[in-house]
Amino acid sequence: MGIIGSGPSGATLASLLAMKGIEVTLFDDGRRPDLVVGESLIPAVIPVLRKLGLEERAAAICQHKPGVTFTLNASERIDFCFQSLAGTVMPTYAYNAPRPAFDNLFDVRADELGVKRVRSRAKIERVGQDGLRLTAETLAQAPWLQSRQPDLIVDSTGRTRLFAHAMEIPAEVGPRKDVAYFAHYSGFEENQPRGQVIIGRLADGWCWRIPLRDRLSVGVVMNKDAAAHLGATPEERLEAAISRDPLLAAAGQNRRRLTEIATYTNYQLVSARGSGPGWAMTGDAFGFVDPMLSPGMHLALHSAELLAENLDDLAAYSREMRKLIRAWMGLIEYFYDGRIFAMYQSGMIFERKFPGKVTDALHNFFNGKVACMASGATTASRFGHGMLEIMSRPAGWMTDPATLAIR
Ligand SMILES: Cc1cc2nc3c(=O)[nH]c(=O)nc-3n(C[C@H](O)[C@H](O)[C@H](O)COP(=O)(O)OP(=O)(O)OC[C@H]3O[C@@H](n4cnc5c(N)ncnc54)[C@H](O)[C@@H]3O)c2cc1C
Fold first, then answer.
1. Each residue of 195-227: pLDDT tens digit?
2. CB of 155 shorter than 6 A to ligand 1
């Protein structure tokens, strides 16, 4: 088996296959920057960490994350607590991960399990209409393969999307034309409860505050045109976005930037195909939905898990991943177009008008279902999506979702 890219997805796949006794060669070009997005994890990541025997090591470097808060404006907030997952299959917490130290855990584990490594940029070439293979030069860098092509080659190259480019596979491009700027800070007020991630609605987009153990990751996501109005450089834009938002500005009065600013654009891409004869894609190389709700690392690790379980049916693997990606897209849309916030606001109005046990039970039921979907436990549940669809209609009569949409 040959895997290209030793990010979290590729290294997880390599470890899972090695655990099954499969011989794996992992190629990586070592081009990981110091500052990498993907710091806020969801509970569904934890079962994979446990499977790899990595949870203890992760807990030692990560910040415990009890939940996520959405701030709609200076006075309204919605708190999601993973504790509401108690009684489900999911852990009732998650982590905020200091990448790339976190990524390194996956690399070390793969090494411990005997995965063979090639530290260079792998190259591939097309074979006929639908096939792919490693170039002779790349194959020669793994002398233990004795010039034999691996039975399966996997693209885990992240946003490089090596196979999609080589095969000219089109990508389904998401509707948003956003740019994200982020950096690490000290001196920000601590999020409450400790470790809670805060997602804030901004005048022209949204922002994240992800507490790590010794610093805060602050990012803003906005339409490219809106960002251009904030300044000429990423520094000016990030600084202006923080300063003009009342909540961010107040929390960051004494802020000090500790890192360079990283910029990400054009990231909503899902490959139109995820596998073919003797090849498959995982993680971002297969598709990345959006940073909203943080599904990226979960999809990266879970795709590795799914592929390891479906080596004899790559088409089934691809179908399952596509289904999951679509489910995340559908869920995320409720946050961008304001319907989820309208449901919450309408729920509050309903609770004030009709207080009592039935209303409380309804509130808890709805909260629990949304938390389960956003934790990764039941994201693809038809019941969950049906419930959102049905509940969003009457909610829209009381609160116009458009007034709460994220631009
Ligand atoms: C703005 C933004 C915010 C995000 N925030 C979050 C978040 O809060 N939580 C979350 O879970 N996710 C988040 N994500 C997504 C998350 O960062 C990714 O989904 C995750 O890192 C994907 O991991 P991966 O293993 O697929 O790819 P990567 O981590 O990109 O790994 C790919 C590896 O392949 C190597 N490589 C590339 N080409 C070659 C080659 N030819 N030969 C050898 N090696 C090669 C690279 O050097 C790298 O090591 C965010 C994404 C964006 C854009």
1. 999 999 999 999 999 999 999 999 999 999 999
2. no
pLDDT of 86 reads 86
* Domain identity same for 302 and 249: no
| pLDDT value for 407 | 87
Helices 339-353 and 314-336 cross at an angle (nearest 10°) of: 60
- Token digits of residue 124: 């591939």
Here the tokens at position 366 are 């709805």
- pLDDT given at position 169: 96
pLDDT for res 360: 84
Last residue of a domain, one of 244, 265, 286: 265
- Cβ of residue 257 lying under 6 Å from some atom of ligand 1: no
Query: Is the same domain home to 57 and 203?
Result: no
Q: How far is the CA of 5 from the centre of ligand 1 (A)?
A: 9
Residue 393, number of CB atoms within 10 A of its CB: 10
- Could you tell me if 249 and 291 lie in one domain? no
The pLDDT assigned to 364 comes to 82
Strand ranges for 60-115 from DSSP E: 63-65, 67-71, 77-81, 94-96
Q: Judge whether 78 lies within some domain.
A: no
Burial of 83 (0-12, 13-18, 19+ CB in 10 A): exposed
Together in a domain, 168 and 273: yes
Q: Mark whether 130 and 198 lie in a shared domain.
A: no
Ligand 1 centroid to 172 CA: how many Å? 18
> CA–CA separation, 401 vs 407, rounded Å?
12
pLDDT tens digits, residue range 39-76?
999 999 999 999 999 999 999 999 999 999 999 988 88
Contact 95, 65 (CB under 8 A): yes
Residue 84 covered by a domain: no
Containing domain of residue 366, as a range? 337-404
Residues in the chain with pLDDT values less than 70: none
Query: How close is the Cα of 228 to the center of ligand 1, in Å?
Result: 25
Whether residue 72 lies inside any domain: the answer is: no
- Residue 295 CA, closest ligand 1 atom number: 11
Same domain, 18 and 35: yes
Q: Which CATH number goes with the domain that contains 19?
A: 3.50.50.60
